[in-house]
Amino acid sequence: MGEATLLPDRGTEILIPVCAVIGIAFAFVQWMLVAKVRLSNGKDSPGGRSGFTEALIEEEEEGLSDHSVVRKCAEIQSAISEGATSFLFTEYQYVGIFMVAFAILIFVFLGSVEGFSTKSQPCTYDNTRMCKPALATAAFSTLSFLLGAFTSVVSGFLGMKIATFANARTTLEARKGVGKAFIVAFRSGAVMGFLLAANGLLVLYIAINLFKLYYGSDWEGLFEAITGYGLGGSSMALFGRVGGGIYTKAADVGADLVGKVERNIPEDDPRNPAVIADNVGDNVGDIAGMGSDLFGSYAESSCAALVVASISSFGITHDLTAMLYPLLVSSVGILVCLLTTLFATDFFEVKAVEEIEPALKKQLIISTVLMTFGIAIVSWISLPSTFTIFNFGVQKEVKSWELFLCVAVGLWAGLIIGFVTEYYTSNAYSPVQDVADSCRTGAATNVIFGLALGYKSVIIPILAIAVSIFVSFSFAAMYGIAVAALGMLSTIATGLAIDAYGPISDNAGGIAEMAGMSHSIRERTDALDAAGNTTAAIGKGFAIGSAALVSLALFGAFVSRADISTVDVLTPKVFIGLLVGAMLPYWFSAMTMKSVGSAALKMVEKCFNKGDDSSRCLVMLTPLIVGIFFGVETLSGVLAGALVSGVQIAISASNTGGAWDNAKKYIEAGASDHARALGPKGSAAHKAAVIGDTVGDPLKDTSGPSLNILIKLMAVESLVFAPFFAAHGGLLFKIF
């Protein structure tokens, strides 16, 4: 055994599941509070079987007891909920087939590494010891893949359910004031955030303990098999993000086409099936898709850290507490986010429209500051004062305070990326106001200014990622980068709560409009929605930043596992990989954007389309084809190229789209003299802004967010299949 830690192993075994259970309990309490918006028939308990579709009739309050309006709200909410459920069930049928096929592929490829032998093998990193057979790794990797996929699907589905449960309740609460509506929308977001963070942690912890029953002291094999959990999470996120993103944007454009071109009915008329589809899209793309995406990042960064730790001193000396340091960071993150959430819902009350956005931004700041102390405590009690970390074949000595700095630098880089994103996408600042101003001379200048803004917005996030990579790698090699990614994701519950708040508020506004509620209520829901728009952009910034760090950590684990000592850019094998890898995000973006265009046209005739099979195949097959035919060195080039170009395109696409959207809203709101000079709705400047917004929709909601899954998924897939590629890859180079 190595140096003892302050927190005993038994303490770790209790602390992790207890924190996860607290997270799930807190989510349930928040849901009960949302369900308190009273219903028409007293029969329904909050957790009743009909909890998602009941009529939402409130008591008479402030003379606002127009029962027909409220009943209309309930009908619209029911239609949105049914639409979202049916879309996800249809999607999950395809996902189910894929999961089974890919699980078989994992088992066959990994099992064939040692010719399906059941004999113990010398360990990969220590030939003097014997480890479990490759067939066991194949079986357990397959199992953890299915576990990750299932957890990801459940997380996304539960998020969608709570969002469709809360949207009409938010609309009804807006009758009492903007503060009440804000609390309902935020609590609902918190339900999703805490469920996802706690479920991800609990399932991973249980899987590690169950696998340990078989693996015993072979921690190297155990944590190699656990990497399948990250692959399962991310491959489901690809379906949720790409499928949901294409659906939601096709519905958005389709709603305009059906309403204005085909049927000549108002744009937000509930008789227009594409309008309901548009609201459904917010839930399947921005809620279910985003949930699966961040769950994937969380699972992968945990897996990358655990793989590297298992071949470091933690794994060699079987120090369980230090080994599970990544899970302890996430556990404390749940407690910190719980406290942070109370600041928004209980300690301070939002009373006016202008208090909404600051309240959401304070969530980010409070959670980051508290988490810094949380990480310091975890590092102090769960790490030996010095230990060694595996660093490309050698063991590097690291001190516990250095590892604390690695996690902290990731955490603060996330906050910086969040605020830079907000600066470039919120209409409170000059970049978006400049874009709005450019609409005076037409759509062309609007598009030029918007693109320029997106490209410029890449600079500071990339520098923040670069600094965190340099600091964390200098201190603790690839393990440092993995825990920096975990640091960025340690406040995932708060990040998701803020992110899910956006689509819920958006839906609430749509319901208010379709139900014919008064102008003052619509103004309140618009204010909630405008704040939600900016926070959604911040959420995307977090997702992209963490994806970059996660991919690099997975890349490092892959390079170690595939036994590559150095990745030399000057060798032709690696350089061609770099070029092809850098091209892939462009190819992927082209396919997703074209799918939105085609699907929008089909939306006029029918309200469901799955036009994204080819883009999903591209992501899943690329690492397999490159690894099998060109080998691990070319694959390492492809991963590096995709990471470098994918991050840039993702940030610029998300921010360009967000800026165009908010430039349009800036003109419509007419809150300043400058905005009123450009407006009102229907003016030439407003029409130019609408064109920019339409072009930006697929950028910010389909291509941009999907790219972070592309870079993560290719890296984690390469890591899972690394033993096979190392043993049998590079067929073309062997022939010639």
From TrEMBL:
Protein's UniProt keywords contain Transmembrane helix: yes
Keyword field contains Signal: no
E.C. number(s) listed in UniProt: 7.1.3.1
Enzymatic class: translocase
Domain of life: Eukaryota
Transmembrane intervals: 14-34, 94-113, 133-160, 181-208, 298-317, 324-344, 364-383, 403-424, 458-486, 542-562, 574-596, 617-644, 709-733
Keywords: Ion transport, Magnesium, Membrane, Translocase, Transmembrane, Transmembrane helix, Transport
Cellular compartment(s): Endomembrane system
A GO MF label: diphosphate hydrolysis-driven proton transmembrane transporter activity
InterPro entries: PPase-energised_H-pump
Entry-linked Pfam families: H_PPase
One GO cellular component term: endomembrane system
Membrane topology: Multi-pass membrane protein
Cross-referenced PANTHER family: K(+)-INSENSITIVE PYROPHOSPHATE-ENERGIZED PROTON PUMP
Name by which UniProt lists this protein: H(+)-exporting diphosphatase
Top-level taxonomy: Eukaryota, Viridiplantae, Streptophyta, Embryophyta, Tracheophyta
